[in-house]
Queue: 2 jobs
Job 1
Amino acid sequence: MIWDNAFAISIIPMLLKGLWVTVQLTLLGTLIAAVLGLIAAVIRRLQVPVLSHIVTFMVIFVRGTPLLIQAYVAFFVLPIYGISFNAFTTGVVIIGINYSAYMAEVYRSGIQGVPTGQWEAATALSLPAARTWFRVILPQAVRTVIPMLGNYLIQMFKDSAVLSAITVVELMATAQSIGTSTYRYLEPLTMAGALFFLVSYPASRLVNKLERRYAPKQ
Amino acid sequence: MIANLTRRNVLQGAGVAALGAVVAVVATGCTTVTPAGQGAAEGTDLLALAKKQGYLRVGIANEPPYTQVNSDGTVTGCEPDVLKAVCKRLGIDDVQGIITPYESMIPGLQANRWDAVAAGLFMKQSRCAEVLYSEPVIVSTESFGVPIGNPKKILTVADVLADSSLRIAVLPGGFEEGILNTAKVPAAQQVTVKDGRSGIEALAADRADAFFLPTLSLRALSETDKGFEVTDQVPDAPRTGSGAAFRTTDTAFLKAYNVELAALKLTPEFAEILDNWGFDAAAVEGVTADELCQTAG
Amino acid sequence: MSAIIEYAPLLWQGLMTTILVAVLSGALCLIIAFTMGLARLSPHWIVRWPAGVFIEVFRGTSLIVQMFWFFYALPFFGIQLNPLTAAVLALGLNEGAYAAEVVRGAISSRAKGQTEAGIALGMSPAQRLRRILIPQSIPAMLPPFGNVMVDLLKNTSLVSLVTVTDLTFRAQMIRSTTGETAAVFLTILVMYFLLSVLLAMLTKWLEKRYALDRRALAVQRKALRQTSIKDKVGSL
């Protein structure tokens, strides 16, 4: 028999531990992505002389390079210049930065989607810039952004498996280490895949519902 | 010419090319074999096959001096060099090296991705149960790579057990990881690093206090990186050695290999190869694979 | 840095392998995209449903898990794929599932009127699809396809983890031997960036070439050229 049921059941606790690390990675990474992405989008929008161009280039560069290589650079190259953190922290930060580049684009379109009338009304009421941003523009922009945020969260959940390459002990790494120590790869890899699916599929249905609810009123 | 590239032509052409490419790849890529342990076809004579195709596929690690890949892509290092010499005597001209992490060497061998492992895969009980080892080619010692001056005074495995704050970097699936586990060093004290270079960098980045690796491997790494030092041979790490490893079904090949290996050891060529890489040919005299396979782990 | 130059031929080999993997899996991706995407539009549930399952499963599990599964788990069923095939299969099927949704979305968003006109003209569903809906959907499909292809290109770096000797794999090898970690990784980071920029430029060119309104664009361009000539002549 090819599939060993007893073995498969015995490794579930270990896999669930790995899944928990994956979940933590994803939640923290999304938080970083959401915040950094917003900052990047605002800086680009404000068109600060040099900074905006740098931010724009960084966004293009991060979107154009693979997450794996970015992770390698963060984990192996930065310590040479003195910036060194453990694998988990490095993983969270780098995946957060990676996705913030995509979030910046989403925020940009969200901000652009806010009717110009809002900007004009804010000027007419002599609202200071900070107030305009925080009380008027951003709340409206973020509303349309939430479903996309959900989509990226799910994508990050799946992408986080790449961080196993920089020794973060998440679900994929756990499945791999079970395989190398028992020489049986079928059960751990299949079950890891199933766990990814069992979390991401319902989540994506939820996000679809969110999309319909928050759809921009045409 | 551009005028003829209507949308339809381009799409049709692209479609056919795509289909053709994929079919070609899948056709060349697919072979069906029975997985190891389920009674691989008795008829596959590895020796005859290797002689016919002119090469043997070998799993290696790129960890000098055991294995090394040069800038022009050629595979060398102590173990592959010995393997090549014996293969020549068997009538197999060439050796094709496939770089793989230690943890995948045995699974890859069993899955028929390569026909031999010659990477300094040290013999121990659990490995000897999965593969057939040739008679030993090298005998090896273990050491710690530590920051200059060895601030934490890590010299033995007992030192590691004594101080639970010490973090030791090891390669996953490696011999050293096995030593630590057999000695009941808690997992929290073990830091996984993917390869030799990452281990040294973990030291520099303060992710680990010591890097556990064979003495000679550490010395080879220190040639390009002077930022760490190599301790003396660790006294309470089991001494063991390695030879080439083959699938458990390739018994005929193993017999032929051992015959030629014994003949090679009687010639000066063997001592030359070992000397070249810094190994001591005398250390392996009289040592048998059976002996070394008793090593716990 | 000198080590990089010495090992440049190996890096070049790795680059060629990366491009090969990208092209092969891109081709598979396109095939899967159209097969599955069109299947999803079928009125028969027996065709629609399995395609739906395929798409959800391959989109819902991680690409790297799929790659490892094809490489490490399939041998347990007696199917032995060489690393390149396993990697191309995983990449093509995974990205194909995403691209299938693009195809489905683009075709189903074509104006209803087109389908109705086709029916009125007595065309069979296959003819309608082949001659009207698909050609008209191509321009709408190109930008998201471009995104999928850039994504695929970046994901080729993962094949290094299943022993395919691509750019990343070679880089790891060189780093292992020379210890030039920073130089090696930063070099391939830039190389991947240049590759994705080239791919993006190629996609833009394709978009312009196959734009539905390219005749209108051409007329515009011609008009612009003529006015500028008139200005020059007028100023003499």
Note: Chain A has nine helices and no strands.
Job 2
Amino acid sequence: MAEYMILIFEDESSYATATPDVLQQVMEAHNRFAEQVAEKGGKVVEGRALQPTSTATTIRGDVVTDGPFIETKEAIGGYYLVEARDLDHALEIGKLCPARFGGVEVRPIMVFG
Amino acid sequence: MSESSRPGAGAEPGAAPRPGEVSAAVADAHRCEWAFVLAATARVAGDLDLAEECVQDAYAAALTAWTRGGVPRSPGAWLTTAARRRAIDALRRDRVLRAKLPLLIEPEAPVAASAPPVAGQPEGDEDEVIPDDRLRLIFTCCHPALAREAQVALTLRLVCGLTTPEIAQAFLVSEPTMAARVTRAKKKISAARIAYRVPPPAELPDRLDAVLTVVHLLYTTGHTAPGGENLVRSDLVDRAMGLARMLRTLMPDEREVAGLLALILLTDARRATRADAQGRLLLLDEQDRSRWDRAVISEGTALVPWALRGGRPGRFALQAAIAALHAEAPSYARTDWPQIVALYDALLRVWSSPVVALNRAVAVAMAEGPAAGLAQIGELESDGRLDAYRYLPAAKADLLRRLGRWDAAAQAYRAALALTDNAAEREFLTRRLAEVTEAPT
């Protein structure tokens, strides 16, 4: 098994304007995700949601500025670290990952040594 | 695999091969067996770079060994055994390297550890059953996680055995650019662990479509080189044809594979007539149909009914059916244009491409008159997706010319000229532009 990071890129403004009902559905989808990954023979090592980019602070050199590193319409809103057999397996898992206001990026974790 | 008439495994005392015979045999084996040898070696090596190195070494060793002992009965098996032994030796020699190697994933069984070839001369191992892994190799090269241009480059390099300079030349990019493209793609295969396998049935239709797209792209790139002096780059055409035949052999039940092979055959049967003696481009209606290759047409046409049968036909089968109607027509005017329009309708349903719509418009012009075709081209122009596509203004110009609208035709020919670098096509468009500008108003 190898580790992959599933980075969730979504449009933050869609979350800001979403109804409580929609937010509830998103929460449930994420709760279901871990079970679905296990059913596929993979494993969620860790998963976290991030506060919106309006709370981000960027440091370049010694300069501290307000805001995200790169200003984009879709920003990273959370991630999952998963274990999968190979890329096809990781992509199968990635397709299950909730991201209704955007998409996900699957990146292999670098192994040293 | 090709077999010589030699009865034994190769070593035939006293019968020294004729000069040139061995190098010809090695060249032949390079063209015909590369994919098989590399595919089988990759499974043992667990790494594409190591596999390539070992296969290259095996081909170099063959030149010496075959000069000394004669060309083996089965050159492919000899080369595979030699290359796989080199891979196993390399892995044994360097346990550290082996531990560090980003192994190709082979989920069914850890092959590197199982059934290593017996030690001894490669000639002695020919009875060993070597699995045919060519499909694994081509599906790995055409994995959707790789960009299309990387899929194309990897297929030529790993499946066809072309060198990076050859691939760079074929696609008119610099060698460093092509080398970087190949290296990046190989690194992604190992770092992201793209599995070395044929996809399971559920994924097969999509994955096969990617493979067929790459082969077809190779064919069309060779068929109409995007720039330069020669209209046809025959080496790419031959490689694409070889790949299509290989897939047809390995996947005899796939209708779209038959469709692609038929399409390539039926298009290529017209190769000799696509330009005149001066290298000028000739359109379908100007080509000498008596010089079309009837044997190739028969082979292609025979595949079409089967490719169309059993469920909704795919895009390659439908394009082959259209090509078959052209190939069988006694003349351009006496082509079954209504049937061709109907096939384009079916094609648009499975493949909604503006290029298909443009071809349909040309067929409509033949079936119902230039004005009807022109109306459809007008719709495509406002769509905007074909703004940089040289065949749109070229097709429009032709219909305007047939309607006697000289000024508008000239304008469209100039627009087409501005979009093409292919010398033969430019010559053709310039000739037509002169015709319409000199025409009586």
Note: Residues 21-119 of chain B form one domain.
